Amino acid sequence: MALRDADDREVRLGELWRERPAALVWIRHYG
Amino acid sequence: MRDRYQELADRGANVAVIAAGFPAMAKDFQQEYRLPFPVLADTPRATYAALGLKRASRLGVLWTSLRELALLRGVRALARRGVGPPKKRQSLLQLGGALVVAPGGKVKLVHRATEVNDNVPVDALLEALR
Question: Which of A24, B33, B73, B121 is the most buried (most CB within 10 A)?
Fold first, then answer.
């Protein structure tokens, strides 16, 4: 699955834990 | 989480926050709160669905807001910032969650909020990163 970062670049979720552990938090809204 | 980011980073973790909305909203949020980790935008909320993150009931959100005086804080915040249009692609009903994944893809922790203030404690993230 791919998301977009704050600079609108694609980030594939799987890349976040490919070589290091990943701690991901889903928030309700930006506020 | 911002204030304890270094503890998570010291355990070698990539840390990120994910929210529904657009990348520009993620950028504003990251800058406003000076977050040292990425904020990722999930515009269609696909990852929310994939993780099984539910939506709260309207009554649940209202009750929690009143209980925690968030409504009063919200009114104060509106008074400070002014009233603007609601941010697109956001829903106050969407509940959050968390995931800790080891290298290679083994899931070490899954947290699915059951109510609006059911946030994963940072200590739980740290424990899962051991």
Answer: A24
Per-residue pLDDT of B65-112, as tens digits, reads 776 666 666 666 655 655 444 455 566 788 999 999 999 999 999 999
- Asked if residues B40 and B26 have their Cβ atoms less than 8 Å apart, the reply is yes
Task: Please indicate whether, in this complex, the C-beta atoms of A13 and B42 are within 8 angstroms of each other.
Answer: no
Cα B40 to Cα B8: distance, rounded to the nearest angstrom = 18
ipTM for the assembly: 0.94
- Tell whether B65 lies on the interface with A, counting CB pairs under 8 A: no
Q: Which fold has domain B2-55+89-128?
A: Glutaredoxin (3.40.30)
Q: Where are the domains of chain B?
A: 2-55+89-128
Q: Across the interface, which of A11, A19, A24 has its CB nearest the CB of B99?
A: A24
